[in-house]
Amino acid sequence: MRRAGILLLFAFILSACGAGGGGASTTPAGTPKTGGILKIAQETEINTLDPNTSGLLVEREIYYNLYDSLLGIDAKLNFVPELATTWKYTDDKTLVLTLRKDVKFQDGTAFNAEAVKFNLDRYMTSTDPGAARKSDLASVQSVEVQDPSTVVVHLKRADATLLAAFVDRAGMMLSPTAVQQLGAKLAQTPVAAGSGPFEFVEWKRDDHLTLKRNPDYWRKDKAGRQLPYLDQLIYRPMTDQNAILASLKTGDVDMARSVAGKDVDAVRSDSTLLYKDTPGLGYQGFELNSSAPPFNDPAKAKAVALAIDRAQILKNVVFNNGVLSYGPIPPASWASDPSEKIYDKPDPEKAKATATGFSFTLKTGNIQDNIQEGQLIQSQLAKAGITVTLQPEEFAKLTLETRVQHQFEAALTGWSGRIDPDGNMYAFWHTGGSFNDGRYSNPQVDQLLEQARTTTDQAKRKQFYQEAQRIIAGSAVYVFTHHPNVAQISTKHVQNFTLIPDGINRLAEVWKS
Amino acid sequence: MVPTAFLVTVAVFLLIHLTPGDPAAVILAESYTPQAAAAIRQDLGLDKPLPEQYLFYIVRMFHGDLGRSVRNKLPVTQAIGERVNATLELGFAALLWSLLVAIPLGTLAALRRGRAPDIIASGLTVAGISVPNFVLGILLILVLGLLLRALPVGGYIALGDSVPDNLSHVIMPAVALGTFGAASTMRFTRSSMIEVLNQDYIRTARAKGAGAWRVVNRHALKNALIPVVTIVGLQVGAILEGALVTETVFSWPGVGKLAVESIFSRDFPVVQGIVLLSALSYMFANLLVDLVYAWLDPRISYS
Question: Which of A504, A506, B85, B275 is the least buried, fewest Cβ under 10 Å from its Cβ?
Answer without folding.
Answer: B85
